[in-house]
Amino acid sequence: MGKEKKITLIIGGGIAAYKSLELIRLLQKECIEVIPILTKSAENFVTSLSLAAISKKKVYSDLFDLNDETEMGHIQLSRAADLVVVAPATANLIGKVANGLADDLASTLILATDKKVLLAPSMNVRMWNHPATLSNIKKLGEYGFLFVGPDKGDMACGEFGLGRMAEPSEIKDQIISNLKGNSLLKKKILVTSGPTVERIDPIRFISNNSSGLQGTAIANALVNLGAEVIFVTGPTNVPHPVGAKIIPIESAKDMHKAVFSNGPYDIAICAAAVSDWYVQNNSNRKIKKKDGATFPHISLKENPDILAELSKSKTRPSLVIGFAAETEQLTKNATEKLKSKGCDLIIANKIAKKSSPLGEENNEVTIIANTYIKKWTKMSKVEIGKKLSQLIIEYCHQ
Ligand SMILES: Cc1cc2nc3c(=O)[nH]c(=O)nc-3n(C[C@H](O)[C@H](O)[C@H](O)COP(=O)(O)O)c2cc1C
Q1: Do domains 5-179 and 188-396 have the same CATH topology?
Q2: Is pLDDT at 257 greater than 60 in this prediction?
Q3: 67: confidence class by pLDDT, cuts 50, 70, 90
Q4: Residue 90 C-alpha to ligand 1 middle, in angstroms?
């Protein structure tokens, strides 16, 4: 990747520590030099010898090593690379750093560095979902730490869920992206996500089955590239993107208020499935079924059009991206939407009776711009989020 770059790789004491060897190899192929740092616990999982042999570099582990301190002191070491990467980032290491603890070489280095820190969390699903870990992660996101993963999948302990370390190839891609300055640092980006809920009465509502998976994947990818993400989300069961500012809403009107009171934005991505209508005669009490009475009449009124308003606002983001879900004439309808809303890109989704992308892990989308139409092959929503982030970077550099 052009001029040789250097990273400091801190390896925490998790079961995924063995993957650090593969990560080093992948980085070497890209001419990225690696300075390896092992925590004391990590020495139980990989040896300094194998790390030194693969990286061809001295491996650091001890904060109080007189030789190391005279050769390259811990503060010097914290500044020696272009990026600090922690893989695997254990719950313990995450907890220490989030709380400003520095009781070993790894945590001291992370606290002392003047470089960006990319964390690849890796732990058991319950450890990841523990409120203490989630609150530490949130804090670190606010401090500007970058994240890659964790992924969902089978774990070494036999359980299944979120907490698996991202694959070395994915960590490598994220490292390269950050080293290339492919970042969206200092860009304030709005992402709307999920469905909206329009109340009929306190129990019933009108909504749709948007899962929030795509919006969340986009927000995660943008946070990982250093963007300040404002994530306005309707009710979903998907874990919120780590490191974003989360604004939960219920109705389209709530979403409108949240969007326009948190701007202006550099970029806006409207991935939420916003209800076009709200129930004008909604009731504060449960509407009762009465024998012989006529069926209650629901009067619908149009909701504010967030995408169109954003696109036409005085403080218009320099890039506005909308989503279109169409049951027929996908390209024609989505192109019309692009024009009528005044946005720059539309990500079009085909909704068919037998195959709807709503709630699915994978999707096949078409990108519609004023000057081109591109169909992306079927891929996971996580991949779409990453690919879209790269497209956004290209727009920013135009
Ligand atoms: C076999 C084994 C596997 C472990 N795997 C993990 C793991 O994947 N993630 C994690 O956060 N902790 C894991 N732990 C616990 C950590 O090793 C422990 O919290 C340790 O204090 C972490 O130290 P460090 O953060 O300084 O590396 C594991 C422990 C054992 C014995």
Answers
A1: yes
A2: yes
A3: confident
A4: 6
The tokens for 106 are: 């790894």
* pLDDT at position 2 over 60: no
188-396 folds as Rossmann fold (3.40.50)
pLDDT tens per residue across span 158-171: 778 788 999 999 99
Strands (E), 194-304: 198-199, 205-206, 228-233, 245-248, 267-270, 277-279, 300-302
Domain parsing of the chain, residue ranges = 5-179, 188-396
C-alpha 13 – ligand 1 centre gap (Å):
5
pLDDT of residue 357: 62
- Cα–ligand 1 centroid distance for 94 (angstroms): 11
Between CA 373 and CA 347 the distance in angstroms is 10
25 pLDDT higher than 80: yes
User: Which atom of ligand 1 is least distant from the CA of 165?
Assistant: 8
CATH superfamily of 5-179: Flavin prenyltransferase-like (3.40.50.1950)
Name the amino acid, one letter, at 180.
Answer: K
Which are the catalytic amino acids? 157
